[in-house]
Amino acid sequence: MLSYTPDTPLYEVFEAFQNVGLFEDSKTFVDAELVTNQDAVVQDFLATKGRDKQTLSALFKRHYELPEAKHEVALKPTDSMEEHIAMLWPLLVHQDSVQQQGSSLIAVPKPYVIPGGRFREGYYWDSYFTMLGLLEAGKLELVTGMVDNFAYLLKTYGLIPNGNRTYYLSRSQPPVFAMMVKALEEKKGREFCLKYLPALQREYAFWMDGAAELQPKGQYRRVVKLSTGQVLNRYWDDEDSPRPESFREDEALAKGLPEEQQKEMYRNLRAGAESGWDFSARWFRDQQSLSEIHTTEILPVDLNCMLYFLEHTIAEYHNELDQYEEAKLMATKAQTRKMAIQELMWSRKHGFFVDYDWKQEKKRYIFTLAGAWPLYFNLASDAQALKVTHKLSADFLKSGGWVTTLINSTQQWDSPNGWAPLQWVVFKGLENYNQKLLAKKGAQRWVELNRKVWKNTGKMMEKYNVVDADLLAGGGEYPAQDGFGWTNGVVVAMLADGVMEKKKATVVAE
Length: 510
Known about the structure:
- By secondary structure, this protein is mainly alpha-helical.
- The chain has 19 helices and 16 strands.
- It has helices at residues 11-19, 26-31, 38-47, 53-63, 81-91, 124-136, 140-157, 177-188, 190-193, 197-207, 247-254, 259-274, 301-320, 324-345, 373-376, 382-396, 420-432, 436-457, 485-496, and strands at residues 33-34, 64-65, 93-94, 112-113, 218-220, 223-225, 231-233, 298-299, 346-347, 352-353, 355-357, 362-364, 397-398, 401-402, 417-419, 463-465.
- A 3-stranded antiparallel beta sheet has the order 5-6-7. Strands 8-11-12 form a 3-stranded antiparallel beta sheet, with helices on one face. A two-stranded antiparallel ribbon has the order 1-2.
- β13 (397-398) and β14 form a beta hairpin.
- α6 packs parallel to α19 (485-496) and α8 crosses α13 (301-320).
- The longest helix is centred in the middle third of the chain and has 22 residues, at 324-345.
- The two termini are 30 Å apart.
- Residues 502-510 have low confidence and may be disordered.
């Protein structure tokens, strides 16, 4: 098991490094590699009188090495975005099968793809959307290895962490492991993928921990039991301290609050990070201020759709193995969750799916692309899908694709930004209900925007401004990143789906 985390053994050392602003990005320090040992750092720190930036910078250089941004090398000019992406794939592949003593990076058995930029490790939900492009590029062995890595993490740690870093082990990300397994099943067959059933069950156990013991209006970790007896899920984090990778930002936000309120804020910030939507007005009480974040009081529609799919997949696999009682139990759980989503998260008045505030026991009328997930998993009726389609077309479709929310809060998961994973969810969700013309229109606009930004910058971005194609996306806690795993994956998958003429890409060996 792991021994090194960047905020141990002496929290005072970690706090001093982060608060002095040694690096512009708090994540730089927690990704650095300790090349001496923890005791040596502590002794040096205690013997060093100064706590100013210059003194601590010298101390850092004596004990640490800066992290390397793996893909930041000069690429040969290419004639097309597709060729550029093909050249990027091998640069984004990372392999670290042996645990390094002074590194926060968690070793996994097989190679995997990192997003790029400041994200030097594998990320959970990013990886599914990255896999879509890898599969189209013929990198089946790489995708199989990545799924194996996630199964390994579930077996070793009981969860798939946000990313394979020690400081992420208190939280996960949107549970897309079942989606990965099903994508692999399309290429390698059901029989091959049945071996992942134990991992799927571990994923489910993590998300449902404590559910059996809950009383009505009770909550524990990621499960909530409503007064009506329905059990649904929320995002959570097992820690209530500042995120190590955003330490300075979190402490500044909570400054001046009483200790208990600080802990509550840290927990909600961390839960927002588990959602993958870090951050969005979707999680704010006033729909504008990060200081009003209350993620743990919200039952997200997308999370519960993903857990429905996990339950459904586990039931399928039990049935395939002639484990009929287990299959029936999980199928019942999936159906029960579907009914709860329909009852609590469908707004008849607005014709859209929304999140549910379990403390206030009411729907949250904040409209976001999370409302498209029921279409992605075929959970909506035809009549509901028609209404969702109308709202998507009227309110969410912009010149560059689908805007994430209808609120401009300055947060990166709000307007005017669009994100690759949600473009894919809307695209396939609309196709599921035969809204192919609208699906194609949105996908075309997204691909064209990706291509325009690539021509102007030579980069594939983490997110895009879909409202004004002449501006780059902004907002959030860090500058725009390039690379970029899930952007590459989704645009390649969309092109393979025939949304527009596919340009031939150069084949690059793994």
